[in-house]
Design a protein that fits this description.
Residues 66-111 have a biased composition (Low complexity). With 405 residues, this protein is of the alpha/beta class. Helix content is 23%, strand content 10%. The protein folds into 2 domains: 17-120, no CATH class; 127-401, 3-Layer(aba) Sandwich (Rossmann fold), CATH 3.40.50.410. The strands form 2 sheets. Strands 2-1-5-6-7 form a 5-stranded parallel beta sheet, with helices on both faces. Helix 2 runs antiparallel to helix 3 (245-253), helix 2 runs parallel beside helix 7 (385-401) and helix 5 (317-327) crosses helix 6 (362-370).
């Protein structure tokens, strides 16, 4: 297994202290006797003291009810709450001097205060599902090595920020194309038959190798790993069971170049089960190519790297945003994005510093205007380590406040 650290005191925010919040009763009456007036004064004083000590986490969740008793009053309260509704409570007061009770008229009162939950966010417990969409265009021959070189910094940043992290890392197959023009591209002779068809060389591939959105484990083409990457459990994504995180990722990330036009969002949305074109293929379900990859109790991090503008994926920024948030139960704080791509759409840029800004880039629009936690960086930067460290610094706070849907 690759290294997993024990939780540190700094991560203790994952176990926040539960706080019981006393309910606030709104008491009014059109006609009150002298004794009832005294009772109301006592109740108001008790509730004021209780609310001063209460510390709500937020406006939703379940409620813990506490009661405050005095020698002359009895207060009862019943409440029912869910994560999306508030409870209503009624109170009755009786005195020792009278056996009759006075009904409290709240018809003219303001709406009751919302109930607050007593349960702190569970947090993601270090669970991060990461999807890498890596372009296979020709000029990626200059940039894929920078991505691979930066990955150890990424892994170290995750360890520093999250401690005992629990990763799922999937490199998507971002096209429907798989092919080898020459068996010399096969690194393992057992993977290739020199007498097979030229486009496949009879490599031992399966249906998942040509399915959009499945985990890439056998890349083809110039500059690729040219062999089947061996992952623990026969999975198509990295888990804590894989012994060497960096070595395993290096095999997956060498997807090659001059292979196909990338369709990053088509592959990402297929991987999370929300393709824009309806499909009966469940990649994450039992027997699926990516079975078990996407977890309800994990944050989702997208890393997209391509030299060109984003123009091949179906739909647009609005549809991509809607589908991704739907995959995480509508939680906008559960999806984080990093795009490392061309900056020719801005000026000055690193890719064309002396040229005016070019046409708009849908990738920039998506990351900056549609995704709540999105970042776009220049692929022409000499190294990408700082980009990864910056995005990982966002994961800690988001992990702490995460509530699985």
């Amino acid at each position: 297994m690759f290294r997993v650290l024990a939780a540190t005191p700094e991560r203790s925010s994952l176990h926040l202290k539960r706080v019981a919040l006393a309910p606030r009763s709104l008491l009014t009456s059109r006609a009150m006797s002298r004794h009832t007036g005294l009772v109301l004064l006592c109740l108001a004083g008790c509730n004021a003291a209780a609310s001063a000590d209460a510390t709500p986490f937020g406006g939703g969740g379940s409620e813990v009810v506490t009661s405050h008793a005095s020698p002359t009053t009895t207060s009862t309260s019943s409440s029912t709450s869910t994560s999306t509704s508030t409870s209503t409570s009624t109170s009755t007061a009786t005195t020792d001097e009278s056996s009759s009770s006075t009904a409290l008229d709240t018809s003219t009162s303001a709406a009751p205060m919302p109930d607050f939950g007593d349960v702190a966010p569970l947090g993601c417990q270090g669970k991060i599902d990461i999807i890498f969409a890596i372009s296979t265009e020709y000029f990626m021959k200059d940039y894929q090595p920078r991505l691979i070189a930066a990955f150890p910094e990424f892994a170290q940043a995750l360890e520093d920020e999250l401690g005992d992290f629990d990763l799922h890392i999937l490199v998507t197959d971002s096209s429907f194309v798989w092919g080898m023009g020459d068996c010399s591209q096969c690194q393992d002779p057992e993977d290739c038959d020199p007498f097979g068809e030229p486009n496949l060389c009879n490599a031992k591939i399966d249906e998942c190798d040509t399915t959009m959105g499945s985990g890439e484990t056998f890349s083809s083409g110039i500059g690729s790993s040219g062999r089947r990457c061996d992952l623990a459990g026969g999975r198509r994504y990295i888990t804590n069971e894989d012994e060497d995180l960096v070595e395993t990722f290096t095999c997956l990330a060498r997807v090659g170049y001059a292979v196909a036009t990338p369709q990053p969002f088509d592959s990402i949305l297929a991987a999370v089960g929300k393709p824009l074109i309806e499909s009966d293929i469940d990649l994450n379900g039992p027997g699926g190519c990516n079975e078990g990859f996407l977890r309800d109790d994990a944050l989702l991090l997208l890393v997209i790297i391509q030299d060109s503008y984003e123009y091949a994926s179906l739909g647009g920024p609005y549809q991509w945003r809607k589908a991704l948030y739907a995959a995480k139960g509508g939680d906008e704080d559960a999806v984080i994005g990093l795009a490392i791509t061309s900056d020719r759409d801005i000026s000055p840029g690193l890719c064309a510093p002396d040229e005016p800004a070019g046409d708009g880039n849908r990738m920039r629009l998506f990351m900056e205007d549609y995704l709540k936690h999105g970042t776009i960086e220049s692929i022409c930067a000499p190294s990408y380590g700082n980009f990864f460290r910056a995005v990982v610094s966002e994961l800690g706070p988001l992990c702490d406040q995460f509530i699985p849907k």
